[in-house]
Amino acid sequence: MTPTRFPSVSPLVSSWPWSVGVWLALMGAVFFSAPPLRAEEPPPQTVAWVDLNRYAGLWYEIARLPTPFQKNCVGVTAEYIPQADGDLTVVNRCRNLTLDGKRREVKGVAWVADPATQAKLKVRFFWPFYGHYWVLALDDDYQWALVGDPSREYLWILSRSPRMAPERYQALVEQARLQGYPVEQILVTPQAPPAPTL
Predict the structure, then answer these.
(1) pTM of the predicted model, to two decimals?
(2) Given CA atoms 137, 138, 144, 148 in this order, what sign does their dihedral have?
(3) Nearest to residue 136, comparing CAs of 124, 151, 149?
(4) Which of 181, 170, 159, 191 is nearest to 66 (CA)?
(5) Residue 181 in contact with residue 174, Cβ under 8 Å?
(6) Are 83 and 182 in contact (CB under 8 A)?
(7) Which helix (H) or strand (E) holds 90?
(8) Where in the chain are the domains?
């Protein structure tokens, strides 16, 4: 179900402060003028395989490259829900400015763009715009992930927990750097502490 080629958008959009009409106009201006990937620059490398049933569920955003679509977003989460046709329902949520700020939510759909690996997906929140979602690194137990796009404009570090060990975080940042992402621009995402176990 690959759509006609249209300008792409960030697949982890979590805040929509404008009306849909204004947003569509803005996105058209932004992405029709976006610089293409340099011909001599190889695309980022993805993992060899993603089991989407294991990948499904709730993820916490630990850090990201800055994007206007997530301006003022904290406490960001992304939830992936398998559907009978093999697609995934995507539910992105965040809080505005503070962890007790106004909650924002947007729903979309993701589908596999590369059946050989299932590591390259496309995500759409509003037709006809879609984003590229490439899994660049993934824990064997599906507890953390590094996600980006082929233009290297978007990057997310995700975890099943709202906290990540510093050594793991630094290792993922280094992997992103080696893949050509501008890691000096990465923003750490504020998250509420995990609930205490009883």
Answers:
(1) 0.82
(2) positive
(3) 149
(4) 181
(5) no
(6) no
(7) strand 88-96
(8) 20-31+44-188
Q: Which has the closest alpha carbon to 146: 69, 42, 45? A: 45
- Amino acid occupying residue 185: Q
Fold for 20-31+44-188, please state it: Lipocalin (2.40.128)
Helix, strand, coil % in the chain, rounded to nearest 5: 20, 30, 50
The structure tokens listed for 4 are 């006609």
Write the pLDDT tens digit of every residue in 43-66.
999 999 999 999 999 999 999 999
Q: Could you tell me which residues are beta bridge partners of residue 197?
A: none
Cβ atoms of residues 118 and 51 within 8 Å: yes
CA distances, 188 to each of 23, 35, 57, 169 (Å):
25, 26, 22, 10
Tens of pLDDT, residues 143-157:
999 999 999 999 999
> CA separation (Å) from 128 to 4, 27, 111, 141?
8, 11, 14, 34
Tokens at residue 33, please? Answer: 């003028």
